[in-house]
Amino acid sequence: MLEKIDLSVGVDKDVYKAAMEEMEAKLGVLQRSCKEAKIPVMILFEGMGAAGKGIQINRLIQAMDPRGFSVYTSNRPTEEEQFRPFLWSYWTRTPAKGRIAIFDRSWYRRVQVDRFDGLTRETELLSAFQDILSFERQLTDDGTVIIKLFLYISKEEQKKRYKRLSASKETAWRVSDSDRQRNKEYDRYLQINEEMLERTDTEYAPWTIIEATDKNYAAMKIMSAVTSRLEYELAKRSEEKEGPARTVAKTIPSDRYKNGVLSGIDLSKKLTQTRYKKELNELQKRLEILHSELYRLRIPVVIGFEGWDAGGKGGAIRRLTSRMDPRGYQVNPTASPNDIEKVHHYLWRFWNNVPKAGHVAIFDRTWYGRVMVERIEGFCTEEEWKRAYQEINEMEAHMANSGAVVLKFWLHIDKDEQERRFKERMENPAKQWKITDEDWRNREKWDLYEEAVNEMLVRTSTTYAPWIVVEGNDKYYARVKVVRTVVEALEKKIKEVRKAKKEK
Amino acid sequence: MLEKIDLSVGVDKDVYKAAMEEMEAKLGVLQRSCKEAKIPVMILFEGMGAAGKGIQINRLIQAMDPRGFSVYTSNRPTEEEQFRPFLWSYWTRTPAKGRIAIFDRSWYRRVQVDRFDGLTRETELLSAFQDILSFERQLTDDGTVIIKLFLYISKEEQKKRYKRLSASKETAWRVSDSDRQRNKEYDRYLQINEEMLERTDTEYAPWTIIEATDKNYAAMKIMSAVTSRLEYELAKRSEEKEGPARTVAKTIPSDRYKNGVLSGIDLSKKLTQTRYKKELNELQKRLEILHSELYRLRIPVVIGFEGWDAGGKGGAIRRLTSRMDPRGYQVNPTASPNDIEKVHHYLWRFWNNVPKAGHVAIFDRTWYGRVMVERIEGFCTEEEWKRAYQEINEMEAHMANSGAVVLKFWLHIDKDEQERRFKERMENPAKQWKITDEDWRNREKWDLYEEAVNEMLVRTSTTYAPWIVVEGNDKYYARVKVVRTVVEALEKKIKEVRKAKKEK
Description:
By secondary structure, the first copy, chain A, is of the alpha/beta class. The first copy, chain A, has helices at about 15-35, 55-60, 80, 90, 115, 125-140, 155-165, 170, 175-185, 185-200, 215-240, 275-295, 315-320, 340, 350, 375, 380-400, 415-425, 435-445, 445-460, 475-504, and strands at about 40-45, 70-75, 100-105, 145-150, 205-210, 300-305, 330-335, 360-365, 405-410, 465-470. The two termini of chain A are about 35 Å apart.
């Protein structure tokens, strides 16, 4: 969920001031309403070190009645806590009905900092995740609102902040050796956090990722996340009481400050034809060998292709497969579901094409249609596509658990490039079949798609089945990136499998 | 869930015939309605070997239109299956809308037979359970009805049946060496099945345990489980379409043939005073030593007491604690919740009394109030108490995962014995405080309580936190059984902990 997010977002001071003023006033009212409605609220601040958790908690509580909330800091477990189940201290701190409990770090320590530090063993991890999920579900079922915020900054930004803090005597104490260690091993720590977010982003207690490079932007997004969620919960409860007269969404609405991915993609990347030919040739040769290696080691491979119309999926797939043994791979094109497919679960037809161990299944368009075209065209309900992120993650996790390599490519081009390609297709008799009225119609919905794609990339890029956004304006660059990514992923997997076999 | 169930239940032939005839006619109609309503249905037959899965499937399908269902048998995974994720073959067999798929063994193989045979490694187990839960949740969310039946017979009954089958040439081939092995190691296999049922008994796809000693009884219960579930699902869907005019329960109703536990308890068990004194004295001495051992090894212990009014909880607790170091245990009496407790989750007050590692927490009445008095008196909604079984199991699992011994005693007496004790209390000035009008009122609801207790014992007796039903008509016998059970459980745990420490 994290690495793809565009951390460069910021906000003008004037916009910030105006927005905050409005939301702060609203928050005061909402707090009183929650008190009257006897709704217990838990707000969790998690995130990377030096992302500004303390500052942000302070800004948030400025607008609240201090008699109505408590702030808890979760440090390393005390002796009292170590001698009890890890959720004990959080159960005892659950807020009474109508009160707000704010946590600077929370029960997530267990699967994050404490995991990084080796205090939580890997064998305890799965049951810790299960315990966390039950805990949050039990509280939610009982009416508690759980708002989970993850404050995110980059490695460089974190380093800069630690440096600044360390430079002054007054603040140097705030940077500990473990903080420095986590910056040094930022990638490992990020991976741990990614896994935590993947496993605990639920319908009833979803995460909100806060881009925290710009502190004002972060404050604004936090305020917006909290107020919009409380508004939603109050509306839902009043609907439950008074009957379905008002129309309240059945699922928690996503925040109006969305995480961007596509905005951060550099589409100017290019390759010359000479380099393209050389690199592609080299990579294809490696892939040919890897392909037979896969077969011997019985590793299944699932590769999905999505992207803008005319984004270059077909061309990339051809370059990928051109030297692979055709008995060892299959390309599955995905069109609208047929009659048989329509009377089954939407994932059923993809399950039918799950590759055998040792084989490669390539999908030209995929199960992600659910959260793109089906979402935008209304072919399924809002509840259905919102549920789909988890369903898809679970399906991919099941494949990965059975030993599969799972990769998903988003072939990205900009609107101008698409227009150029559409026109080229119309003018070229050999390519005319590729362009239909529907393509032009979809193009009109570019912004809706962009929003859906951003959400999809954030919510379904996982450690076990990552999304790769391919800079596609230059076809040479794009094709080489696709083939290289596959080659490297296979090499990594083959190495792991060999190592595991040796250890046996 | 299993070991406490009374397997001696049976049915008269006449009752059976009449009931089946009626239900078979109903099933035919329901099948057609499900087809019209486009509901996909999956019926799973799991259970102990020789429990009669084949026969029962046959009886069930007699009443159905053969064009509308398919029967699948799940044997050991074929090569095609082994080379794919284990849910693949079940995904591909999910029924189309309006069709019924019946499974003779199912995806549960993976966490049951295949686990017993060592084909599923213990490290793969937790993720297999997660995959199963997601699979069933995804299908249910999409409208599939999943009916899960577990056919249960005792070790002796199984042995008898294998013997009978082996005796004749025509049927001997049906008993395999693995069948014999599972009978030999019945207890280990039972434990594996217990764990499977515990982990996968969900609100959306609950298990029904079928007592399968009497084949007619089993057939009747299966038929009843299937028809009542389909009726419920049809009603729910028509309510969703036409608005909440009719009143359909929010949760799947439990079957009218309930599993009995208390009916199988032998209340005539007795001890003489001499033996009582001798045994109790011996056990208490052992307990004294164990208690300080617990402290050194930092093992937390949670012991809950429930039972009929005047069942002897107080007396048993006194005998249990009389020689324990008071600094190392605490008795927590549970009364109606106070004002502070009322504005928190119902489990909150018990979480506050979770023992520190090395300490013993005894609860005189417990969190089980939720599924007994609160259920019967309507202090919580039906949804709330139905949800509570899972919540309680999760809380106890969390404690057990953190290293705790968790035991729960049900002090059982019959109605006559209760009356005798009530009267004795009224006549004895020193005991009069113990008896109130409420006790007499509760007594009038004996049958309702018995039903609730039976359900509670089946659904919350787990491998990690078992219920012990104590034959309580004779106080001597009861007290010795309580203290002995605690002593033996602690000895077992201490042995395990010592072994684990040595291995480190």
